[in-house]
Amino acid sequence: MDGPNPDIKHPIPMHTRVGFLKGLVSAPNIEIGDFTYYDDPDGPDKFAEKCVLHHYPFIGDKLIIGRFCAIAEGARFIMNGANHAMSGFSTYPFNIFGHGWEKGFDPATWSKEVRGDTVLGNDVWIGMDAVILPGVTIGDGAIIAAKSVVTHDVPPYAIVAGNAAKMVKLRFDNRTIRRLLAVAWWDWPVDKISRNLDAIRGADISLLEAAA
Q1: Distance of alpha carbon 13 from alpha carbon 61, whole angstroms
Q2: Which of 18, 25, 116, 148 qualifies as a cystine partner to 135, CB 3.0-4.6 A?
Q3: Closest CA to 50 of 72, 31, 22, 80
Q4: The whole model's pTM is what?
Q5: Pfam families recorded for this chain (predicted)?
Q6: What domains appear along the chain, each with residue ranges and CATH number?
Q7: 15 an active-site residue?
Q8: What is the DSSP string of 41-61?
Q9: pLDDT by residue (tens digit) across 141-192?
């Protein structure tokens, strides 16, 4: 029992709405770990076009998603290309329309709004229609509730919900979270994961540590 092939685009026979994203996304500014999947009734093949918005290579920001993440239908990652300059009286992007409106535009007024890469850890669950704003980091094991708008970093193993999303609770106590992060089962070889699924799916941290 060595698990599914992470390079298979549609790993569930007769259920092609689910796809492992690593084999479906080729954009150089998107990095996706093994076994992370997207679920969409129209199919997962257009994940980058439908779910990763305003992501322009010249900006240089990346979307980085770890291993074993579950991303539900309608999730959206808003990247830095959506930002407007906010230092002046108007946020309207006159310069992009040219015909003389680009004259005098100071690119620094826009570039200072760039917030860096958007990063999802491992084993993150993104609920339906959730929106992740630019530069956010979501920790390992976190859960983002459906229709949440995530504007700030999310700690590991936190559950957040709402607009703007706020932490509802931590999934486990702080000591258990530290132990889970130390085990980092998602980095194990696939055959080791396969042998220890009961410990990974269970709730006995000592059993999981014994398998490490």
Answers
A1: 35
A2: 116
A3: 72
A4: 0.93
A5: Hexapep
A6: 18-171 (2.160.10.10), 180-211 (no CATH)
A7: no
A8: TT-STTHHHHHEES--GGG--
A9: 999 999 999 999 999 999 999 999 999 999 999 999 999 999 999 999 999 9
